[in-house]
Amino acid sequence: MITYEQIVQDPAVREYISRADESLMALGYTEHSFAHVTRVAETAKYIMEKLEYPARDVELVQIAAYLHDIGNLVNRIDHSQSGAVIAFRILDHLGGDPADIATVVTAIGNHDEGTGVAVNPVAAALILADKSDVRRTRVRNQDKSNFDIHDRVNYSVRKSQVRINDERTLLKLKLTIDTKYSSVMDYFEIFLQRMIMCRKAAEALGLEFKLIINEQTLI
Question: Domain range holding 108?
Answer without folding.
Answer: 4-217
